Amino acid sequence: MTTYVNGNDMRARIRTVIDQAPPGFTYKPDGDDGKCKYFHNDGSPSCLIGHVLADLSVVPQDFDGMLDDDAKRQTMSQWNIADARKLLTAMNESDGDVKFSAEAIDVAEELQFHQDHGEPWAQLLERGL
Q: pTM of the predicted model, to two decimals?
């Protein structure tokens, strides 16, 4: 069964993740490369969008072999550092069970940008979620 995530659903899921985070939480990339990732190496969610994906029962292995904009197959680790728009669009075009509306992708992209530039998660709620 396919799950469709619209803009309002994306906002609600993001609010839930933020509400469960410690007060003042600011996402920091893990690892030596300094890149933001959706999932840690152990498969647990890392960033805000990673937590939303995990809540939707998406696991990192679901990314393996998805096609990018140039119709090239990408590995799980390559998708793990892609921007939200590219990842969620590729998920829409894959045979996976989770699909995102254009508005949901817009919300994810904007929040990921601000998160990746050091804004505390609670401040993201002030951006009109």
A: 0.88
